[in-house]
Each structure stands twice: as structure tokens, then as C-alpha cells.
Amino acid sequence: MIKFIFKAILRDKNRSLLPIIVISIGVFLTIALSGYIKGVFGDMIDQTARFNTGHVKIMSKAYAENKDQIPNDLALMDARELTTSLKTDFPTFTWVNRIRFGGLLDATDGNGGSKGQGPAAGMAIEIYSEPSQEVERLNIPNAIVTGAVPSKSGEALIGHEFANKLGVKVGDEITYMGTTMNGAMTFESLTISGTVRFGISAMDKGMIIIDIADVRKMLDMQDATGEILGYSKDELYFDEVARKVSNTFNAKYIDNTDEYAPIMLPLSAQNSMGSYLEMVDSFSSLFIIIFIVIMSIVLWNTGLIGGLRRYQEFGIRIALGEEKGHIYKTLIYEAIAIGTIGSVSGTILGVLLTLFMQKHGIDISGMMENATMMMPSVMKSKFTPELLYIGFIPGLFAMVIGNMLSGIGIYKRETATLFKELEI
Amino acid sequence: MHYLLTIAMLVCVSPSLFAQDAAGIIKKVDDNMISETQIMVSEMVIHGKRNNRVVTSKGYSEGRFKSFTEYLAPDREKGIKMLKLENNLWIYSPSTDRTIQLSGHMLRQSVMGSDLSYEDMMEDRKLMDMYNAKVTGEEVIDSRKTWVLQLNAKVDDVAYDSRKIWVDQERYVPLKEELYAKSNRNRQWPCYGGSPLKEELYAKSGQLLKKTVMSDIKKIDGRWYPTTLNYKDMLKDGKGTDFIVKEIRFNEPIPEYIFSKASLKK
Asked: From CA A85, how far away is CA A91, in angstroms rounded?
């Protein structure tokens, strides 16, 4: 039977070619667009996780309430002990300390005056004082435009455009002026070890990166940290895992009324990222629904045209005594076979384009010159295993549903009028 | 009839009398608070969320354009100096041996984590030069009778668009002050017949930014002066910052070199 259907499909190309093309295009578009959306949104989420939220983040409750103001006076104390216990309790995560801070950078003109000045957004990370993957996680080696990663105390990286604005280069001295954790005024002379460009305008124009040991000294934050960030060891974010880890950690402090007690938040609970993640899923679902509806209508129409073309064939088959149900069944089998061929070819094409776009992407850096959003400058697709079925199943269903709808006409044929219809 | 005429005349004349009174009051307040020169040793108690800090400083000021402050304690701040000339502010840090000039929005930053901004520290003009005053009522604060004055800016370059001050009726010293952001405008709605409604409706867009409470009023060199001031930044949590005058001298000559950039590094 199956062999018979395949022979029919191959021999009567008018019956199969158009549906196969339509399904292939539909499946291809679904996979390519889903992969692109997942890639672009995924990159933005990944970038946010690397630079800002982590997969999970621990702060003091008071700090978390005002985290946009970077209130280091409300920072976590006993950071070393807490980090050690996190490493023991949640070994599938990597834990790192970070301090975000603000202040003023002033470039000396060599005569005690200033040649440039600007507000800076600072980030203290574990560069050389602690063994960590922070430098790689932030993609600093690739982001360096001039100079190198700080290797000793007193060195700092600054945004390339920021350096240009201040009129400084690698090796020059700058002065940081800010406020310590206790509110005291602090000044620190720093040497520029390198300039970086992340492709994120807000960072390139005002970022300074210093080793956390230097910043602790500078801001009187010995054994304190603004944030402890956790990353799953495979660097992939899974919301359920992050939520589970957060719930387990927070359960330990549920009865602690101290406003400085730590609280862990998964990525999805920070910076409105939860709605962002939901939006990504909604977009994918929306694509599939639109695809199924449109494809069903198109294939129904194709089936109707095919039905009209095969009107005579069905009539003869009924006249020869073939059951209407059997004809309908063979029509559905044909639809499954055609749907499978179309879906497979569409999936192959869609996955190939996704893999190509995953490697090369679309460079939008030209449009990002004045952007202040944290988003990647090259929009890339992302291949995920679900792409293998996300278009295939709807492609198959659309073909079958289309044929089921158009095939209903078979049951409306009357044997008594067949000979008249067939003009025999 | 005579009785009615007297009332009518009083109603017509009283606003100008009030205005004159208000101007007279703030002139007397200025006479108490502002001097040609001032040398002051003060303590700033900054109430943080986790701890309190006491910062001691010695300040010199001359007129409205020159002031110099040297921080004496604690060790972290010791030796930091600030110089204000006209609208410029320089800060010297002994740890880096650098002098940094602050300008623009940086002047709105908090000084040493306190509830005072650099702009607040720099603002020492006479009230009568900056604001139009109006007496809006009377209140008793800590058993002292006060006038409540509404001050609205008459010049553009003021840090606060309007102020409300409670002035001791006997000593002419403010006991309380509220500072408001720009666009706190009092609107009068015209009523039918052309005359304004008696009540004023406030457009509440001007936010209360800071509140100051003055206490420990002492007579120093023949003038009344508050020696303890609590500044409260209303946009921040906490108990505010206490500014305690430990020693103050008025109208003493100050050597000119004090107000030079060279004195920052001395």
C-alpha cells in the first residue's frame, strides 16, 4: 500500500510537487525564523547574564530593593564565607564576586590639572586576584582594542570611546573619585592597562573594569561584595534549574528578618527578564500557530484543486466499487507521505540556514553607534534540538488537515449520478 | 459705614504690609546668618544605614564667592581640601596628590555620603537676593513662636526653586526649612467676575527635596546663630546629617592666599 502510494506520488508529479514546495517553504521559514529569534533573544539574555544578572545573583535584601542605585553601603558582608558555602552547597554552579560602582574619572594633564573628565560606571571582577573565568566570560580578550588585561594592582581597563573622550591611552594615569561603602570620599590613581570595546555603546563610552581586590581596598569593602553571581558550569541558562537553586538557597533565610540577609534571584526574576523569556517563547509559539493556520488554508486549497483535478479518478474508483472510506484513507496516506517529504526537505533547508546564521549572523553595529541598550552588535541564529521538530510536525499536520478538509468532498459523490458526471 | 471703609482699606493695604514684613524678616535672617567673612570648625555626623561617621572640618568663607574647607578627621578624609571660587569647585586629595575640578551635575552629588550636596555647600547667597518672600502664617516650634515664610525664586541660578522657612519671631533665626524642586508653582484660578479666588491651588509637581531643622541657637558675636542643623535629603532613607558648629568667628580678616589653588596643596 505504502509502496503503491509512493509510486503514485513519484509518477504523478502534478499531485505532489506543489504541496511539497508549499510545505517545504513553510517549514523552512518557521525553522529559520524560530532559530533567528531564539538566537537574537538568546544572545541578549546571554549577554545580560554575563555582564549583569548571572544565571542567579545573590545580594543583600536591602541592596536588591534598590539595586538600580548600586547601593554599596548595603552590600553583602562576610563575602568569602558565603561564597565558600555556595561552592559547597551548589557545586554545579560557578560563584564569583562582583562590585558595581560609580564615580568620576579624571585624566591628569601632567601639571596637576585635568585634561578630561567624565562619569564612570565601574565593574570590579576577579581578574588576577582570584582564579576565575571572569575575563573569558566577559569576552575581554576579544574586546581589547589596545593594551592588555590588568595583571597587577593599580591597573584598569576602560572603554575605548571613553579613553578617546578623556584623551588618554595605555600607560596613562587617571584618577578615580568616588564614595566608599561607608560614604567617605575616595581617590585612587590608576594606570590604564588597556582599552576595550564590547560593542555595547553604554559600556564603551563610560566603563571602567578593575580587579575586585583593588576595588575592595578603594571602596573600603574588605570581605564585602555588592553581588555574588552564579553561573551553571556549562554556561547555559535553564530557568527551572535557576529557580530551584534560588528557592533552596532562599529557604535557608526565610525566617531571617535582617535586611542585610542574602537573597538569591534567578535571571528570570531580575530586570524584567522573566517577561522577556516568556516573550521569546510566545514568539515561537505564535510563529507555529500562524504557520499551521496559513499552511492548512493553503493546503486545503491545494487539496481542493487536486480533488477537482482528480475528480474523474475518484469517480471511476467509486464506480469500480472502491469504498469511499478507502479512497479517503489513501488520500490521507498520500498527504502523510507528501507532508513528510515536504517537512523533511524544509527542515533540512531551515537547519542549514540556521547553522550558517549561527556562524556568521547579521552585523548591525552600524545601527548601534548611539545605542545605550545592552545588546549584541551581530545578530546570530541559534540551533536548538527543538528546531528539528518545530517545523516538521506542523508541516505534516497542515498537509493532513488540508487534505482531510478537501477530501470530505468524496463522501458527497452519489453513485447514481456518477455515470452522468463521468459522461460515459 | 466708617467701620466698613476701614476694613476695606485694611484688606487692600494688608498684602503690601505683609510683603514688606516678609522682606524685613528675611533681611534680619540674612543679617544673622550671613557675614562678610566666617571661620568655622564643624562636625558633620552622617547617619548611615549601618553606622554613623563624624567628619570634622575647618572652613573659611568670604562673601558669596569664596570659601575654603579643610577636612581634619577621620583619617580617611584628613587632608582633603575644597576650594570654591565663583561657581568653580576644586577638591584636593592628598592620597593621590591630585586636584580635581567639579562642575555640572557632579555638583549635585552628596558630600562625603552626607545629605548635603556640593551645591548646598556652595550656596551662601543672601535669601533676599535669591527669593521673593511672603508670610503665610504663624506656628509654634519647640515653644518658640515663628513666622512661616514662603520663598519663591526671583533669579534662575538657584539650587531650589522655592523654600518654606519657619523664622523665630524674636531671634530672627530659621528653625525649620523645606527646600523644593523646580516647578512648584502656586496657581491662582480666576473666578467669575474677574477677581481671583481666595484659596490657592498648588500644582504639586515641585517635590520636597530637603528638610533642615535648626537647634541650639546661641548668641555669638552679637548675633543669633543655630549651632546644630539636621539636613535631611527627602529622597534618601535615614536620619539625615547633623551639622554641628563647634567654633565660629564672624567678620575676621582672612589672608587672601587661603582662597587660592596653591593653598590646596599646602
From this structure: 10
**Cell 564615580, located at residue:** A103
* Contact status, residue A261 vs residue A64, Cβ threshold 8 Å: no
In sequence order, what are the residues at sequence separation of 6 or more whose Cβ sits closer than 8 angstroms to the Cβ of residue B134?
A: B18, B19, B22, B149, B150, B151, B152
> CA of B94 to nearest chain A CA: how many angstroms apart?
9
Whole-number pLDDT of residue A62:
92
Q: Is B225:B245 a contact under the CB 8 Å cutoff? A: yes
Mean pLDDT to the nearest integer, B90-99: 91
Interface membership of B114 toward A (CB under 8 Å): yes
Measured distance CA(A318)–CA(A399) in Å, rounded: 24
Assess contact for A334 and A314: CB atoms under 8 A. no
Distance from CA of A74 to the nearest CA of B (A): 8
Provide the pairing of β-strand A93-108 with A56-60: unpaired
Q: Where do the domains of chain A lie?
A: 2-47+275-422, 56-236
Nearest CA in chain A to B74: A184
Cβ–Cβ < 8 Å for B119, B111: no
Return d(Cα A182, Cα A70) in angstroms, integer.
13
Domain locations along chain B: 2-33+126-235, 37-115+252-265
Instruction: Report how far residue B82's alpha carbon sits from residue B259's, in angstroms, rounded to the nearest whole number.
Output: 10
Locate the chain A residue with the closest alpha carbon to B46. Answer: A183
| Among A19, A292, A309, A404, CA closest to A9 | A19
Residue B184: pLDDT over 60: no
Q: A185 vs A78, A174, B6, B92, B115, CA distance in Å?
A: 23, 17, 62, 11, 14
A vs B: CB pairs below 8 A: 73
CB contact under 8 A, A187 and B53: no
**CB nearest A73 (choices: B48, B97, B102):** B48
A62 CB neighbours in chain B (<8 A) are 49
pTM (2 decimals)? 0.72
Q: Establish if B262 touches chain A: CB-CB under 8 angstroms.
A: no
Q: How many Å apart are CA A341 and CA A22, to the nearest integer?
A: 11
Q: Which residue shows C-alpha cell 570654591?
A: B84
CB A26 within 8 A of CB A346: yes
Q: Which of B50, B112, B265 sits opposite A185 (nearest CB)?
A: B112
For A152, the 3-state DSSP assignment is coil
**Average pLDDT value for residue range A102-118:** 85
> Does A356 contact chain B (CB < 8 Å)?
no
Give this complex's ipTM.
Answer: 0.73
Contacts of A119 in chain B (CB under 8 A): 106
CA B234 to chain centre: 15
